[in-house]
Amino acid sequence: MLSLSASRLRDRDIFSKSDPMVVVYTKKRDGTLEELGRTEAIMNSLDPAWIKKISVAYHFEIVQPLIFHVYDVDAKFHNLPVEMLKLNDAEFLGESSCALSEIVTKQGQILTLDLHNRNGNRGLKNLGKLTVHAEETVDSKNAIEIIFRCSHLENKDLLSKSDPFLRISRIVENGGSVPICKTEVVDNNLNPIWRPLCLTTKQFVSKDNPLVIECFDFNSSGNHVLIGKLQKSVADLEKLHVQKTGASFILPSSARHGHEKVLKGQLFVDQFCEKQLYSFIDYVSSGFELNFMVAVDFTLQIDILELQILCTTLILLANSMLTNRRGFPSTISAQMKMLISIVFQPSSGILVSSIDGIRLFGVLIPVVDMIEKCGIAIMEVGEVIQFYDSDRRFPAWGFGGRINGTLSHCFNLNGSASGIEVEGVQGIMAAYASALNQVALSGPTLFGPVINNAAEIAGQCLSCNSRKYFVLLIITDGVLTDLQETKDALVRASDLPLSILIVGVGGADFKQMEILDADNGCRLESSTGRVATRDIVQFVPMREVLAGGQTSVAQALLEELPGQFLTYMRNRDITPGAGNIAQTSASYASIY
Fold first, then answer.
1. How far apart are CA 584 and CA 570, in angstroms?
2. Which residues, 6 or more positions from 585, have their beta carbon under 8 angstroms from its beta carbon?
3. Greatest pairwise CA separation for the chain in angstroms
4. Cβ distance 218 to 185 under 8 Å?
5. Hey, is 115 helix, strand or coil?
6. What share of the chain is helix, strand, coil (3-state, %, to 5)?
7. Minimal CA–CA distance to 386: which of 68, 28, 99, 29?
8. One pLDDT digit (tens) per residue for the chain, 592 residues
């Protein structure tokens, strides 16, 4: 909800003061404005504080531009509901704009904006100021954290042991049940202990509300086999924990009038604690930041015939431009303009010497696909995350390229020997364009070195008590040759404040990326048998996102990020007001 107030508004009335109201819009992707709501009009006030709140749904994964128009409502319209007022009948007092992200990341979620004329015209000064205060509306932040354990479960598999998981449902008024959460799957175990499970008050409604707890044997086909079930309220589960006793599962009889079978298997509650469940906005509005990092693939992934056609087209077009001394023809695509700009130097009027075979191969291969798609991914993701990064200085790397003939699996994209950061999203794009002229594409494709570099930065920030969470965007068009090493790096990094977004560009087989994403519920396992603490990877094949057309690349990539962020914070018991966030996590900084 947005609360609005203003100060020092212009007085448009002769015998009294202005009667201001605010109309709030959001700007859609096509540039059109959609009205979100209007405040009431306040009579005779140049410093109004409006009572009516404007409801806005917060979506982390997109930039949500907000436009605020302030009007003076004529006295003859005061008895008319503001929703019915024609804005042409009101006098314009000023406008301002911002992104919703800018508000929620401010301390106290309060942002003060200067009012100006329409379309940014600042001809008239001192139009006043508009203050916007965002408030998150939640039913309750109270939650219960429970650790469940079972013993002596019945085995449902023939050649191995069952792979059990729990599903918890709330019984509703009509007698049916609604699933509210489930545990992870524990493989091959009849005495499983699950990771802590968090139940919010919104999920279980009240401590006395009955819950159905079902234990299933997981099957990849989706036909999970019921091992047993029981019915308990949250209050009952708390008693089980206090009394350190178990509750027996039952198995409904298959006979029409048969009795339920009481099983040997039991459910235990090893931990039961009430806690505050803070939201993503609670953290970012109290000073926690998201730090953006980028790694771009410079490996060689192209068909030779396709390359020859591309090079021939480029040389003919560039030579034509040299001969005619003209600019780009209007029919040339944006990516072809980018390509020509790399190999053509307008200041000297000549083609650079790299138009000679192997060097041309190294420079031009990624342009048609990678330049455009890489730019889309960097711009869309960067434009969202930059609001959560105060200095907007982003580490940027390349991998899989040759610099002065030497293969590197992690090099600074800006060409610096020591400085890894660039200024803003445009700085990333500029560094990438420059690197294409300096780095020869090569291979193979290795993620391990880049992930380890990002993890080292995240680990160092833990030791210096920094309120930072890191987001690494990897853009690739190839197949991994270090899959197990990448798994090892990801398992280690799962203990750190780090999430990894992977964008697959082109038509390669990205099955390995889907393995890293671990969306099938099975967490990654290292070569030593260690299982990842949490899921930190989100993979998106760009061709599918662009073909669908319903969501942007940023939306597809960032939808899981707030959840990953919250999982990390809750696992470490880090609260928004935490004075020392390193005390629960410092030991993890030493693993790198």
1. 11
2. 462, 495, 497, 572, 574
3. 92
4. yes
5. coil
6. 30, 30, 40
7. 99
8. 999 999 999 887 677 788 999 999 999 988 899 999 999 999 999 999 999 999 999 999 999 999 999 999 987 787 788 888 999 989 999 999 999 999 999 988 999 999 998 865 655 567 899 999 999 887 667 889 999 999 999 999 888 999 999 999 998 877 788 899 999 999 999 999 999 998 988 888 889 999 999 999 999 888 999 999 999 999 999 999 999 999 999 998 765 556 788 999 999 999 999 988 889 999 999 999 999 999 999 886 544 444 455 555 555 655 565 555 555 555 555 545 555 554 444 433 333 333 443 344 444 444 555 667 888 889 999 999 999 999 999 999 999 998 988 999 999 999 888 889 999 999 999 999 888 888 887 888 999 999 999 999 999 987 777 899 999 999 998 788 999 999 999 999 999 999 999 998 877 788 888 889 887 667 889 999 998 999 999 999 888 887 777 778 899 999 999 999 999 998 888 999 765 444 444 333 333 4
Residue type, 344: F
Angle between helices 372-385 and 334-343 (to 10 degrees): 100
Query: 114: helix, coil or strand?
Result: strand
- The token pair that represents 455 in the structure block: 């993890």
* pTM, to two decimals: 0.75
Distances in Å between the alpha carbon of 470 and those of 451, 542, 562, 568?
A: 11, 22, 12, 12
Report the side by side order of strands in the sheet with 129-134. 2-7, 129-134, 110-114
Q: Supply the DSSP symbol for 155.
A: P
Helix (H, G, I), strand (E, B) or coil at 208: coil
Alpha helices in 344-413 (DSSP H): 358-364, 372-385
Using the 8-state DSSP alphabet, how is residue 370 labeled?
I
Q: Which two tokens stand for residue 74?
A: 């004529």
- Tell me the two tokens of residue 475: 């853009």
